[in-house]
Amino acid sequence: MKSLKFVLPLVVFVVLVGFLAVGLKLDPREVPSPLIGKPAPGFALARLDDAGRTIRREDMLGKVWMLNVWASWCVACRDEHPHLVAFARTKTLPIIGLNYKDSRPDGMGWLSRFGDPYDMSLFDQDGRVGIDFGVYGVPETFIIDKQGVIRFKQIGPVTPAIIETRIVPLLKELNG
Amino acid sequence: MARWIALLLMPLLCLAAVAKEAEPASADPVLEARMLRVAAELRCLVCQNQTIADSHSGLAEDLRREVRDQLKRGASDEQVVQYMTDRYGDFVRYRPPFKGTTAVLWIGPIVLLLIGLTVLAIVLRRRTRMAPELFEPDEDELRDGAPAPGGEVSR
To answer: Fewest CB atoms within 10 A around its CB: which of A144, B3, B122, B138?
Structure first.
């Protein structure tokens, strides 16, 4: 009974430290997306480079593709950009940009200045499609499978490590 | 002289660049009030401890517009909250629904309170059984010059 008096506070302390340790590692900015495993929302958007051509969700069915949300005003996108350009060179899958709340000249200028990794970019001026995709922190990246289901979401810049450990294995699974 | 005035006025130029036009409020004050009430239930994901009603972030402005448009189209408050939950998850709701993943959130505080009350009850009960000598004498007992038997009084 006497020993309990010493052990109990110790146990409480260890549990508390455990909770705090886990809490330190969690990133509160990373909100689990409810969209994973659900069909991608429907959209019909004009291309950034050609206002006359509209791309719909249905146009992408049958392919595994990547949707990368970017904007010329987004600073983190600039950090991510070289990695995307390098990944695009491997021609692993179609990469579609979603130019989010931007202007056409700014977006086009940004691509010509930093390079264009996208097969095409869609122009979401008022951010409505972004809302449908639950976008809240640009850049965001989605992987969408052949059936049009969202399989992966990355909030914040994609890094080479994420491409290697998360995206490439997923693509093998989806294409295999 | 003119140069000095120009220099003095320069900081004001920055202000002009930062200041932003007020958002156009809906012409209908009833709708606007309803929109703000719904928006106050929703968390702004860009600045996480603010509601969408309070936040000035671009996303919050867009979401307020979305709430306003949907209410205008005749959606119920619940439908709008559901619309946001479908896209951003339970996290956007300041009052998340009770279910498996949120059970700890809802029950946790009650459990902690019960543990606290139990410990308090046990401690108090033990104390009533203790001999009075084990306690320090009360101050008025000291003044009356009647220290507890066996209790040592020293200042």
So the answer is: B3
Q: Tell me the pairing of strands A65-70 and A140-144.
A: antiparallel
The CATH number given to whatever domain includes residue A88 is 3.40.30.10
Q: How far is CA A153 from CA A49, A60, A119, B14, in A?
A: 26, 17, 19, 38
Q: Which residues of B touch A136 (CB under 8 A)?
A: 45-46, 59, 88
The total of structural domains in chain A comes to 1
User: For A162, what's the count of Cα atoms within 13 Å in the CB-facing half-sphere?
Assistant: 15
Chain B, nearest residue to A101 by Cα = B58
Under an 8 A CB cutoff, do A132 and B48 touch? no
**Does residue A23 lie in a domain region?**
no
ipTM of the complex: 0.74
Task: Classify domain B24-97 by CATH number.
Answer: 1.10.8.640
The reported pTM is 0.71
If interface means Cβ-Cβ distance under 8 Å, which residues of chain A face chain B? 28-29, 31-35, 101, 126-128, 131-134, 136-137
pLDDT digit string, tens, across residues A54-102 = 999 999 999 999 999 999 999 999 999 999 999 999 988 999 999 999 9
